Amino acid sequence: MDEKIKIRSKALKKRNGLSAKARAVKDRKVADNLESLDLFKKAHHILFYYSVKGEADTRRLIERHLDSKQLYLPVIRGKSHFQAVPVKAPLNVRSGYENVPEPIDEEPSSVYDDKIELIITPGVAFDRKGNRIGMGKGYYDRYFAQNHFALKIALAYEEQVLDYVPKDLYDVTVDLIVTDQNIYRCHS
What we know:
This protein has 188 residues and is an alpha/beta fold. The chain contains 5 helices and 12 strands. It has a single domain, classed as 3-Layer(aba) Sandwich (Rossmann fold). It has helices at residues 2-16, 20-35, 38-42, 59-65, 139-146, and strands at residues 45-47, 70-77, 81-86, 93-95, 101-103, 118-121, 125-127, 132-133, 151-155, 161-162, 176-178, 183-185.
């Protein structure tokens, strides 16, 4: 676990050290690479994360595809899991758990998780096998474990892809990593 903490700290420092100009260029390239994928073009139900704290930007992607696809954002439920909640146009979000934006117009009793085709996931560090280090709370690993039919796509900057990321028993790998420079098809 100590190794993950060190990697997370170093990766966050590198990611947060990017200038606003460099980040804007990288975000456009990440979005272009994601949108170039046939599996993204064909998908109708996509769970996005709402980017915060220097994560690869999803806000423009969400706005651009809100009318053509059914998009979802995670809403934290308790301390251990989240639920995919549909996003409606126009995009209306509020500050949720740990100030992460979540949909305002949520339908709390409805469950949409079985409709999700793609899970667009954040992370701090990745390796080419699809191992990831997030913020350490395990929300995405638990969601991946219960939604194993959906394809998991991480968005990141090339600087976040490392040679090696440690993997614990409960960690779930992603299927693809889309960066500003590459699209990695991951194999554990």
